[in-house]
Structures
1.
Amino acid sequence: MSNAVGRFRIGPASVISAGHSVADKAFIVEVVAAGTLQTQRNRNTRRMPFDPFDPFGDFDPFSSPMLPPMRGLGQFAPNGPDQQQLSAWPHEFDIAQPRDPVAFLDARITPKRVVIGQQVTFSIFAYGHPGLFELSGVNEPSFSDFLSYDLMEDGASRELPMRIGEDVWYAQKLRERALFPLHAGHLQIGAMRASFRGVDPAGQAAYKEGMRQSQLLNIVVVEPPISGRPSGYRLGDVGQFRLSSSVEPRDVKAHDAVAVNFELSGTGNLPQHIDLPERSGIEWLEPNTSQTIERKNGKIAGKRVWQYVLKLHDAGTVDLGTVRLPYYDPERGQYAFATAELGQIVVRPGAAAVEPAIASTDDSLAQSIMPREQPGAIAPPRRYWADTPHFFALLLLGPLGVIAGMGIKSLGARGLIFWSRRRDSVKRRTLEQLQVARDLLAHEDAAGAATAIERALLTAIEAATGLKARGIIRNELNGSLIAAGLSPSESELTVSTLDACDTVRFTGGASSLLTELLDKVESFIQDLCRRAARGEKARAA
Amino acid sequence: MRHLDVKTILFLASFVVCATPAHAEALLDSDSKIIFNRATTAIEAGAPSEAIAELELLADRGVLNPDVSFNRAVAYIKRAKTSRAQPGDLGRAVAALEEAIALRPSDAQAEAALQRVQSELSRERSRRGSQSLLVRPSIGRALVRLFPENFWALSAMLASGFCTLGLLVAWLASSPRRRFVGKAAASISGAFGILAGVVIFAAVQIRHTVTIGVVTVPEARLRDAAGVPLPVTQARDSANIPEGARVDISRLSDRYAEILWGETKAWVQLSDLQVLPRR
């Protein structure tokens, strides 16, 4: 039952199940003054095509945002709104330039940087260029990081013609909410999505592909400053508040009850708690609380009432002192107090108090534990040996050092063996002899060169075949070499070389003979050395 | 090794912990001292809420002092036993005592008070038929926290030394018997050294990446990363963490903290926890 004229938004209803929030759509109900329904309906372009409650009234099947109004019945002329209608749109509809050439949703917040508990005003406007529109499939933005209050008493406003630059647009304020951030951080308000539907003044369908969404909004929320923060301040107590109190009666008997009422009023998110005076011998019972929230010039204001029962157990005059509620005033940028003086109560001796029950173990803890009178020093941060630079490398250094030493020693031994073998190798010895032969030939010592060639050849033969050719007479040498595995041509080369060496050594032949011989026999000696190496490998395998 | 019983190990551990050099940090500044005195007076006058307001103001200002934390715990404990007790008072007392111990590890009075408050919380939970504060930690974390980190560091260093010695004997000794003894010593100490090295590495990782938090509400609801409450499952017999429970925090977002409680890894609302300072 409505007792006021206007448009009311009902919902959206939402339910949280298993941590998921599911929300329905909001519904707009328009209440008009009694007796004006006919006129109102003629003006209103958003109606049911067929009204079952007024089937023969002012039904105009051609007048809705989806259909062009009939000449003389519609709100605007076919060519759009007249100058009078375009002269007075609310300033809050003003926008520098459209975000879309056809239709768009525009979300705004003010201010963009706040402290925890400070009001942020959030609003969303819909703009359509082709003509009047209506919205469907509205998806509400989420305010999970905020306490949220609706600031629009009448629900969504009407679409009004206005200008953006030189163009005529239709604008509608969809939502206006007061948001109170619950924690610090970079908080985000999600996008609102809605689908535009309607026709242009010429009667053509407009807003094709009319789904639009508002922009995401970010708010920086910080804690109020630490500097100057009073004790007892609770994060979120932000606004401008006044506190008043009443204490009745002021003359009581011990253990009797006294009614103490507090009323906190002001603008902002009303604090949930006040710190009561604590004295020995007084006992505050659980309060009854009530709260009234109202909108006041775009701000949330209200009143919260605490009704306490106070019991005074000790006779005498009790000064209850002052209740102070610290809060942060964002407009002045400083902390302030809402205070209420409670005054004194005269307590006369009353009936004997009931003896308290024997303290339990935990009560004895509360009674026995006493605060420290003086703040002492802080122990230095604990030092950890593992934080020593290269700690893990140092752990491995010893064992790996020994293992490395063992490895180096083993490698050294192998190297020594290798070099020893290499030093004694046939190839090295024969090549040395051949080099000696060349040097001697260069110094015209043919006999010495012949001896060196003979030594190199016999060494290579022995290494390759195992045959000690030096002890075999020359006539039998050919057969022995063939028997030892040399080919006949190699055997003949060997014998002829040895003969030539003997000739040079004993008869003083020309050194040029040896020069030719040396070139011829060198490749043969190298071949023998290779065979010797292969044989050695085969034996090793 | 016959004499290396638990007492010896604990003595060694305490030696390792106490062996670190101590240099006391500065006391409170004059403003903080005044607030501290006001709070102490309020506690003694039976006004714990006023004391809490003063001491929380010091915490908001970033004052870290074990005696401030201890007195805050005292104020919460005293308020918890009055008609004006607030939900979570004992959890906040646990958090304040944990903070006092973190700032001064040798504070025996704080240790004793912490044990009594935790016993009280356990009793309350038993009366209500709720789960215990005690949970079984994962084997890895239990091993890492079996002894102080420096104990494991010392063990690793000793193992490294014995391993080196054993290897040297095995390498250089002439007698086969000595070489065998050397090899055996190197193998045993090497294995223990690897274990201690792994534990110390894990301990360093945990110390650098994990922060300790204490639940300061009657029950902290377990959630997923998106903040959706988790149901009870066969693997997880509770969807809540009890008041006063100590949790490991591995990650923080604006509203939630990723925690490890026993073997349960989940997210909880940041406002349900008090994060302890890293020391």
Note: Residues 171 and 179 of chain B are 7 Å apart (CA to CA).
2.
Amino acid sequence: MISSGISSLAVLLIVIFLFREGFSLFSTSPLENKNIIVVNKTNPVSKLNAGQIKAIFDQEITNWKDLGGNNDSIILFTINDISNYFSDEEVGAEFEFLPDKLNALVDSNPTMLAVYQDKYLAKKFSGKIVNVAKNNIPDFIMGKQWFPTAEPAVQLGVAPLILGTLLVSFFAILFALPVGLATAIYMAEVADERLRKILKPVIELLAGIPSVVYGFFGLIVIVPMIHDVFNLPVGETALAGSIVLGIMALPTIITVSEDAIRNTPRSMKEASLALGANKWQTIYRVVIPYSMSGISAAAILGIGRALGETMAVLMVTGNAAVMPKSLLQPVRTIPATIAAELGEAPAGGVHYQALFALGCILFLITMAINIWVQAISTRRKMNK
Amino acid sequence: MSKNLKEKIAFWIFRILSLGVLLILFWILEFIFVRGWHMLSWDFLTKMPEDGMTKGGIYPAIIGTLYLVAGSMIVAFPLGVMAGIYIHEYTLDSFFKRFIKLMTNNLAGIPSIVFGLFGMALFVNTMKFGDSIIAGSLTLGLLALPVVIRVTEEALIAIDDSFRHGSYALGATKLQTVRKVILPMAMPNIITGLILSIGRVSGETAPILFTVAAYFLPKLPTSLFDQVMALPYHLYVISTSGTKVAESRDMAYGTALVLVLFVLILNLLANALRKYLGNKVKMN
């Protein structure tokens, strides 16, 4: 009794731990290291979001009027600029005079935007602390910039990662589904027993090869091939990922759809043959329509495998977190991002939480896929 | 176009595509065997890595993988078999059973990297095991759990109900029936499934990235709370990161070959065992 609940318990625990870490992201600020943003108290701007902060630091926004303020250019001050404004004696050996100096500096510069840590906030503070929008779900999912370690404000837009994942998986299935389906039909309906006995273990073995070996194979064989064929600067592209993932999705698609095809009742096939149809017409008009739900389950399961695959994709897709434009560009997927970055993200930090939030997205997608497949197979059972 | 010509064309397309699948496998195997074969030697299997992992052997990675496989099986095997027995022999087709089946299927479908995240959050950080064999084994064990449950269930489904009824008719209780009749009969299939799940666990990289795997360790682990090197992770690091990717290429081919051989041997073993034990049960 207890042991049977263990899988439910495991799923529950995974949900709790994943979502606890992931969702804590949305109650934290994109500003790292307890930084605050301070402006003159006469400045009408009192709210900024992560994207605006980055634009200011990248000099894309240089005027307050772009932020809803007066028509003045922004004077940027960060803690690295200290030496331009103050001498070592002025700030003190232990930085003990720094808070007051910073306060006075912002007071005397109405168009200054200063970023410093909250421990340097003066006791008699007379400026204004800008309210920085917290990380939120819409920005997280729709944002196009993924710079999880940017200073001072991290950019956590996962749209390029989600699109990269979908792109690579979609083309993987586009390649694997026809090949897999053809093999499944061949094994179930055309091939004789002897050939089946060869193909079956081949497919089991394909399923058994570890993903890191596929990645290695892709890295050494497929990546250089794409590099040469398309004459690209780098061969690590979405296409390489799709090819490797397509090969990896083959066993799933073949096994599941072969099962479905085999379940076609003999009587239906014989009725078709008796009406004068040949084998191909029977397959095309009777077997495939009958096993359509099983075949679609195979396709969905294959997509699920491809979406969650980590190591092989990490090794061959080049891992550039940009909005994917073509198959011949490096892309980065959700699992690859987690695998590549979690090791460097300090536990509990914004970056760490963001990677867990990515894990939540991945979990929800695969969960939805599983429930969908199970709904398809229950419906099939009911129809019988 | 006559219908028979169409059939011929269609079947030829099927044949070619199936042959393609076969060729892909041979291509991968050829690539790994041809380039890795000359690396395979007693020294390669039993020596520590040398010169920034460009020379020497992969002994610690092999040992690490064996530890992890053993650890994860200790976690997954008893729990999984018991769960499978309970689901198939004890529950009726209730809401509870359907819920558990749904959850088991979902657990099987969760990507391995999510297991890695979870293992890091729970075992490494919350339970304070740190990066250790125990954290890695528990994570891998959870990953293997749905496989073991499913294998057990399938083995039990294959046993005809007449055996159960026969046992009850002789006055045996349910527990006696399961222990003395059902389990011995199901064992060959369960063990086969177990071997196949060992193959899967031994090749997993993503779940061990953040729970146990070490880039390089000069000595073997001495306790459950030590980190270990592992074959799949070793292959990953020497083929992608590090400064001497080109120099360690041969080591990577060798590691890949050892990993594939391991899976291949497990597959063959499972098949042989299935035949052998299957015959034995029939004779009894």
Note: The first helix of chain A runs from residue 6 to 23.
